[in-house]
Amino acid sequence: MNLPSEKKRWSGESDLVGSLQSLLGTVVIAVFVITFIVQAFQIPSESMENTLLTGDYLLVNKLTYGGGGAADHIMPYRKIRRGDIIVFHYPVNPAQHFVKRVIGVPGDRLRLVNKQVWVNGARLPEPYVRFTKPADDMFRDNFPRMGVPSGLEPKWWLQLRKLVEDGQLIVPQGHYFVMGDNRDDSYDSRWWGFVPQENIIGRPLLIYWSVRSTDDLAVSSSSVSDKIYHFGHAVTHIFQITRWNRTLRLVN
After folding, report:
1. 7 is a catalytic site residue
2. Which residue among 5, 45, 47, 133 is the active-site one?
3. Taking the domains of the chain in order of start, what are their residue ranges?
């Protein structure tokens, strides 16, 4: 007499176990993807305008360049190229993440003349660059210079002097020279030096969301109530704050 109810109970338990296993599998896959394949980042400044804007949220492909191990000879990784946009740990403070464009790869000889980049004696075509100020005789626009401009990292200044030859900076092996596309408003390799290969996280793949103003998402207080308020504001105004023309756009 109790067999039907007993069978239903076991069937319910089996469904529950199956659901839990499916959920666990989904979580494991998500953790694996986030840890090893892609990672989310937000653009916090104007240094890469107009390629990337403040308020763009990126998915970064962490497998593009490999990790320098044995798997690099098996997986279809590729070398970092001049012109690539990369996300990396800021060499001066590795806890911070920066996004810049690769201008010089190992062995390159670089110089800037009136804002124009020259690599190995040839002018580098840069259709992505944005200029907002007229050229002048500053370290920013004519690089390298042997003066000591304000804001230059002291360690970089010492290294810079050793790597300049015939007015050109020689990029050492295992390092990359990067600059922002918003060339007049970018704190980049001109000021703090090279990006070591091991600091590079990956290459931006997709702008999965973009907001018009990060003020809509900012939380000035750490209180739970403020966080709930700002989250609720963002959710209720999502259609107004979203840049739909940039959302789900591939990064080139």
Report:
1. no
2. 47
3. 35-250
